[in-house]
Specification:
alpha/beta, Rossmann fold, 5-stranded parallel β-sheet, 7 helices, globular
Amino acid sequence: MAKVLVDTNLLVYSVNPAEGKKCKKAVAAIVELIKQQEFCVSAQNLAEFCRVMGEKAKPAQSQDNIKQWVRAFRRCGEVFHYTGSSVHSALAISKTDNIHFFDALLVATMRENGVDEIWTENVKDFKKVRGLKVKNPLK
């Protein structure tokens, strides 16, 4: 069964009712992937989620809340980890496809785990990567 990586922005929207329609659409997208057993994230997505929710969210969320959400995401599907090799590949992807290093690190991690589709609000940058399927479920 094919896996779909859910980017950090959708994880953040899914737990923030103040985002209104974005929240509802992010939740619906994640639920769809879970039902189809296609949901996956990278450890990088979970780390970014923690930073956003603890440092950038208004109001910042407690560590207890953040831990509960991370625990829930981990139970929803697979969590892929990057390696030193992933970092090396990300450098090449970043240069070749002209994308930010951390986006390239997600792509490298996805490729190493046989994932070729990402759901994200950041379609513009990920569309630059050859062979990557990109969907914005918020539209």
